[in-house]
Design brief:
- The structure is a homodimer of 342-residue chains.
- Chain A has 342 residues and is α/β, with parallel strands linked by helices.
- Chain A folds into three domains: 12-55, lambda repressor-like DNA-binding domains (434 Repressor (Amino-terminal Domain)), CATH 1.10.260; 68-168 and 303-332, Response regulator (Rossmann fold); 171-300, Rossmann fold.
- The first copy, chain A, has helices spanning 12-19, 23-30, 38-51, 57-64, 80-95, 109-121, 142-146, 171-184, 200-215, 232-243, 257-269, 303-320; strands at 69-74, 99-104, 126-129, 151-154, 165-169, 190-194, 225-227, 251-254, 279-281, 298-300, 330-332, 335-337.
- In chain A, the strands form three sheets. A six-stranded parallel beta sheet of chain A has the order 2-1-3-4-5-11, with helices on both faces. Chain A has a four-stranded parallel beta sheet with strand order 7-6-8-9, with helices on both faces. A two-stranded antiparallel ribbon of chain A has the order 10-12.
- In chain A, strand 6, helix 9 (200-215) and strand 7 form a beta-alpha-beta unit.
- In chain A, helix 5 (80-95) packs parallel to helix 12.
- The longest helix of chain A has 18 residues, at 303-320.
- Chains A and B meet through helix 4, helix 5, strand 2, helix 6 and helix 7 of A and helix 4, helix 5, strand 2, helix 6 and helix 7 of B.
- The first copy, chain A, binds a DNA duplex (30 and 30 nucleotides) through residues 9, 11-13, 21-25, 27-28, 31, 34-37, 40, 55-56, 58-65.
DNA sequence: GAATTTTATGAAAACGTTTTCATTTTATGG
DNA sequence: CCATAAAATGAAAACGTTTTCATAAAATTC
């Protein structure tokens, strides 16, 4: 059909020819190299605009080993928190002239490994990762790290020392705040549904929970603490177990919103009044929590701030080349969102 | 720090040397070229694996004008429907060895234009687009189209003839089904909150609405039909207007779920019983609709099917090179999800 | 077994930049 | 105004593939 009219892209040579300059000078001008006259620079820029010139990323990347592309691995983009973080990252990177390749691991370790490999092969300039919940070994990122490619972990980060940068929410404080809130509103028999302790997220949230209980001299009933995959089904099962006992809890701190929602459903189905008989608080401020009846209290994680920080740190590292390794994680504050369920 | 131990990537030349073959043969073997002996192929593949060889995308792309990367422009990845479509697309493309660059227009036309430009410059092999609601002019995609790059529009597609491929939900049927359902459950005075008619989505959904009304010989009250941005606030305003009149509607078909939720909130706040006094149906089957009380009826759009179809059509076009232009849009069926609000 | 076709390989150019090194031009100081 | 330093430009190589064209090796035909 319209195969003939391929409007071939103008190259640096076209600009060179038009201005009677060498391609080398054009390249320097376009890259704002200090050794080129101001007048020449502006001439080149003008001509480039006039010819609709667009740098060929691949040629440029091949020669300079820079792709101007950042990789991102995330469990699932449909998770509200991640969607927000990604949006912020993308908009910020865009301003700095970087592209973003977003990949989903579907929370599978094998997928995460494969993606790390692919993104390494794609020669991304940097990598941003929110790990799988099962990721405890990080050797699949070694290649990147030892090639000097900045790797930034956020949200779900390695537990032990790993030569990369970490940005995380204040999960300990989140757990602490949530639990204190339940206590302050009069609860004493508090249950806790959390995730597998292989992830820093749940280690910290649970630690915050225990700290608050201890501080208020409240006992933690081991039968009311769950560490399992945080699915709807698992949460309902846990609720069933707890509410078939002789003594039942009067409050629940769920380490994510999905399980808090499941718990609320369970309560409704079983005639348990929320918040009168059972107070519930979740984690993440998922949009659903504000819509369900009664609206769920939860912990706000400020995804936009997380995204902002990631890009800030990233640009710093890309500029300075060398990064300080082994430093403390950057911690983004969290806040309590109080609603009708507590 | 660890600058010294950059483990440089092995190239095609390393394989060539190891096997005493020429780089040309290696390249052909890796690309499964017919003119290379089976034995040689397997030798090369084995050695490539052994050396941990990964093709340099940029070199390959520069020479062959293929990036093995597909661009995607979407209003917002946090919209449930789009998140699901993207996930499907990504997983499918991944199996075919393609990368996906996901970009968000934030529903801004200027952003969409800029992104089309950037992705063109990035030499993506194909482009997938869900337009902005304001996009009525599509000339910013002309460059891509006339360069022979497959462009696939989905969900929000151009209204008039444009030489590209379209994949859309059956919005007319969705509007029709929703309205018929309201009528069949006993409603007669049906209101309709829709979006701006600049988008095919709302043209079609509204057309379906009108068709159903006409077929059942019910009048459409023009004061009860709104064409506005489908935000929470606008919906509440519309509801206020309608329910301050002498006659009030007994059912509402909202063209998206956000406004259906807003309408439900309005009803709750004003003591209007749903579904007794007012039946409500939304559109898209957003996760929130099943969680709100009463659960909202809505229209399921099967985002996974949409994603699947997109990739199917895309791979077809990438393989065959030439695409059939000006053909009918591919239409993905929709279904009614009946819940408590109707 | 020579002539021809088919199959498999190699040499070298090409893709569009960036960058090193060399060279020319301009500015500076005495 | 010459010597020198500084600034601006150019020539050419390089990045790692793919691909055209040529050639060598193997298979086929008579």
């Amino acid at each position: 059909m319209n195969k003939d009219k391929k409007p071939q892209q103008n190259t640096i040579l076209d600009i060179a020819e038009a201005l009677k300059l060498s391609p080398a000078t054009i390249s320097r001008a376009l890259n704002n190299h200090p050794h080129v006259k101001e007048k020449t620079k502006s001439d080149v820029l003008k001509m480039a605009a006039q010819l609709g010139y667009r740098r060929n990323q691949m040629a440029s990347g091949l020669r300079s080993n820079k792709t101007h592309t950042v990789g991102l691995i995330v469990p699932r983009i449909s998770m509200f928190f991640h969607a927000e973080v990604i949006t912020t990252i993308q908009n910020a990177l865009h301003k700095h002239g970087y592209n973003l390749i977003i990949c989903q691991s579907n929370d599978l370790l094998t997928m995460e490994e494969e993606l790390a490999d692919i993104l390494y092969a794609s020669r991304v300039d940097a990598l941003i990762v929110a790990c799988t919940l099962q990721t405890t070994d990080f050797s699949h990122f070694d290649k990147l790290v030892s090639s000097g490619i900045p790797v930034i972990f956020y949200d779900r980060v390695p537990l032990d020392a790993y030569p990369a940068t970490f940005i995380k929410g204040d999960d300990f404080r989140g757990g602490y705040l949530a639990t204190c809130h339940l206590i302050e509103t009069g609860s004493q028999k508090i249950a806790h549904i959390s995730g597998k302790l292989s992830s820093n997220l749940y280690q910290d949230r649970t630690a915050g929970f225990r700290k608050a209980m201890e501080q208020h001299q409240l006992p933690v009933n081991p039968d009311w603490v769950f560490h399992q995959e945080l699915t709807h089904e698992n949460a309902k099962e846990a609720m069933t177990k707890m509410f078939s006992g002789a003594i039942v809890p009067d409050a629940l701190f769920s380490a994510n919103d999905v399980t808090a929602i499941a718990a609320l459903e369970f309560a409704k189905e079983n005639g348990i009044q929320v918040p009168r008989d059972l107070k519930i608080i979740g984690y993440s401020n998922d949009p659903r929590t504000s819509i369900i009846t009664p609206a769920l209290s939860t912990i706000e994680q400020y995804p936009a701030k997380v995204g902002q920080k990631i890009v800030e740190v990233l640009m710093e590292q890309l500029k300075n080349g060398e990064r300080e390794v082994g430093q403390k994680p950057y911690v983004i504050p969290v806040d309590l969102i109080r609603r009708m369920s507590s």
